[in-house]
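wait is this the right file?? whatever heres the structure
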């Protein structure tokens, strides 16, 4: 899961009944990432390596709602469905980009980032399902109107099956749900602090919104894995998460659902949750009808590094030793790919349990080993030596000093001394995931950014009595990301809150505290009086803050250590502190485990102009691959979309977008013409805002 800072409440994934999916045309893009196998693959062939350089803008849809958009749009029956920066759902004519309808929730949508919608159809009943805030909604796909018979007046709570400990806690969804027959199984994004809700997997009935089944990722008494946690962890107030937030894959023929899970919470200290902590950081295979566990594999034991499984797995058919095997492949933040028999869960390449360092933090007991596959080879570097520091940095001596003081190495536990975490907090692989073609070749983009993580003792409540009510709340909830002096960490994505009253009003800030925005989670559990005190502190209004002292403060679960924030290891100019490449695209033959090629992905124009070879950039959003031999990807900080030859990795075409496209493209064909469309919202990584979806086609 991507940190307690990114409250993503995604537009629900397009729901598709089995009969509808099986009949859907190769010309459509009916589900998130192209289909239930999550392979980002299209059989279309009109755009080829020979003519891709002729692509032109076919249409551009301006939503008039600018801001980050991570949506992978759907196309069904000639209609393109997408979502805006503030979660307004729209339907367009897929050939012209002309708007057919648009839906905005009464009272305004969530401030979260969404990655897609779900479309479901049973004869004339056609629905769009999407998540906003803590709810799952259903719309009529033809008219865009709410389906009031779904749940309670068109919505159901995403907390419905989580139990009493989830009450009033932060629960949203930023990734589309997965459809099986008339069930939709929803990913959840939760807090990553000690106040996290449990991350149970929930299936809802598409027609009624009622819960069909629940799988407990923090096992309850009598369930497999219960003994991998301290007794009754499932109902402890200071233990939670182990949730799926990245999305799932589905083998519809076998009715097997593949669920990658994230870390338990609190993310960075596990002294209160000693043990392996099943089913956190697992690839789970569940019976899609009942939620029964079929098999699992834990990829990180007792995670204290936030090493969530960051993307849906890929369902592939491989040829190994002359035998065809239906397989499931999972990419990871660490840059490894784990490949299993889809039915039995048996690893298809050997995996070794390697000794890992022990913690020096009081009360922490990390697991003594971690599983590392022998093949495929990792698609990112695994270690950074002194020789690997940024050779272009103006402050090389400072970088070297920071590097030498930091703890380093394989699964190095966090402590009060900064630990150099590499690959970093956002991978390796990130939520965009990998594309795989029918030949079993995986194409995965990756970040190569080191981060500095550390812990510090958590002040006890009696140590904070000298602070004002608002400052106490800020110290408890906000310091890790925005800093002790409210200065933020803009280079790592956390804005300064100094003089926020000059940029925002109290109502807006209060809404963000409650619901979250972008990477920030909401704090729905703190009282209205406490929110008033916190806002008064941020606005420097001591008089108002003083009047907000009344009432008992919300008791937060106590964990002896707190996280000191997500700090990128950067040089004095804001470039990565390590040598390039800083972003890559890799082709891996999953049949053999061997890499076919690796290319840098993205560039900094100002460095290229200095004669430095393209360095690659941080990138968010995945690739798509087509039967004609092309790979399309946006994702990069430089704001371009590119087409690569999938066989060689050569760039065949590139185009600058209206704003950076931190989203996975879609491709479809209508009226005999193939289109490639991508959402261009920008804002992430300091890029400019955008509000458009742009489609490319041949003349």
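ok assuming it is, sequence goes like this
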């Amino acid at each position: 899961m991507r940190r307690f800072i990114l409250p993503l409440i995604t537009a629900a994934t397009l729901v598709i009944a089995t009969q509808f999916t099986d009949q859907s045309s190769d010309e459509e893009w009916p589900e998130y990432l192209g289909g239930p196998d999550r392979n980002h693959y299209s059989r279309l062939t009109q755009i080829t390596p020979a003519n891709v350089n002729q692509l032109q803008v076919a249409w551009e849809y301006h939503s008039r709602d600018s801001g980050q958009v991570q949506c992978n749009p759907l196309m069904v029956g000639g209609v393109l469905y997408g979502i805006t920066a503030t979660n307004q759902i729209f339907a367009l004519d897929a050939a012209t980009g002309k708007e057919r309808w648009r839906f905005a929730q009464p009272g305004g949508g969530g401030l979260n980032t969404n990655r897609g919608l779900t479309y479901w159809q049973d004869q004339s009943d056609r629905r769009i399902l999407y998540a906003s805030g803590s709810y799952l909604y259903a719309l009529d796909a033809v008219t865009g109107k709410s389906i009031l018979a779904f749940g309670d007046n068109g919505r159901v709570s995403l907390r419905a099956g989580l139990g009493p400990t989830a009450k009033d806690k932060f629960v949203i969804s930023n990734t589309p749900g997965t459809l099986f027959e008339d069930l939709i199984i929803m990913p959840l994004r939760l807090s990553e602090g000690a106040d996290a809700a449990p991350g149970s997997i929930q299936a809802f009935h598409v027609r009624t919104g009622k819960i069909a089944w629940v799988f407990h990722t923090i096992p309850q008494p009598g369930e497999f894995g219960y003994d991998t946690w301290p007794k009754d962890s499932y109902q402890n107030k200071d233990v939670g998460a182990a949730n799926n937030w990245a999305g799932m894959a589905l083998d519809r023929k076998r009715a097997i659902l593949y669920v990658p899970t994230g870390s338990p919470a609190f993310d960075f200290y596990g002294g209160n949750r000693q043990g392996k902590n099943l089913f956190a950081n697992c690839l789970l295979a569940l019976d899609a009808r009942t939620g029964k566990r079929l098999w699992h594999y834990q990829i990180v034991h007792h995670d204290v590094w936030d090493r969530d499984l960051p993307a849906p797995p890929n369902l592939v058919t491989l040829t190994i030793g002359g035998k065809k095997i239906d397989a499931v492949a999972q990419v990871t933040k660490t840059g490894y790919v784990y490949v299993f028999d889809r039915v039995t869960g048996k690893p298809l390449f050997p995996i070794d349990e390697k000794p890992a360092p022990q913690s020096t933090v009081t009360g922490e007991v990390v697991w003594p080993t971690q599983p590392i596959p022998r093949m495929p080879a990792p698609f990112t570097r695994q270690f950074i030596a002194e020789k690997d520091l940024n050779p272009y940095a103006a402050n090389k001596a400072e970088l070297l000093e920071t590097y030498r003081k930091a703890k380093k190495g394989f699964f190095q536990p966090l402590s009060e001394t900064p630990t150099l975490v590499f690959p970093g907090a956002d991978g390796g692989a990130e939520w965009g995931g990998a594309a795989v073609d029918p030949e079993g070749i995986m194409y995965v983009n990756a970040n190569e950014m080191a981060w500095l993580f550390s812990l510090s003792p958590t002040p006890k409540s009696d140590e904070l009595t000298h602070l004002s009510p608002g400052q106490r709340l800020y110290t408890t909830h906000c310091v890790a990301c925005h800093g002790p002096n409210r200065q933020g960490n803009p280079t790592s994505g956390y804005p300064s809150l100094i003089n926020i009253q000059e940029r925002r009003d109290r109502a807006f800030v209060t809404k963000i505290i409650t619901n979250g925005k972008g990477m920030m989670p909401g704090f729905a559990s703190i009282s209205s009086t406490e929110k008033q005190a916190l806002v008064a502190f941020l606005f420097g209004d001591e008089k108002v803050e003083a009047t907000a002292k009344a009432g008992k403060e919300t008791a937060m679960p106590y964990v002896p250590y707190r996280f000191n924030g997500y700090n990128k290891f950067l040089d004095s100019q804001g470039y990565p502190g390590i040598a390039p490449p800083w972003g890559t695209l890799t082709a891996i033959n999953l049949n053999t485990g061997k890499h076919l090629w690796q290319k840098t992905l993205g560039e900094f124009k100002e460095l290229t102009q200095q004669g430095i070879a393209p360095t690659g950039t941080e990138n968010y959003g995945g690739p798509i691959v087509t039967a004609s031999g092309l790979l399309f990807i946006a994702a990069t900080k430089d704001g371009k979309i590119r087409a690569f030859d999938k066989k060689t990795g050569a760039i065949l075409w590139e185009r600058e977008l209206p704003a950076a496209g931190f989203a996975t493209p879609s491709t479809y064909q209508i009226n005999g013409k193939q289109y490639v469309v991508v959402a261009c919202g920008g804002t992430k990584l300091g890029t400019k805002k955008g509000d458009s979806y742009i489609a490319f086609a041949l003349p």
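The first strand starts at residue 41 and ends at 42. so i think its the right one actually
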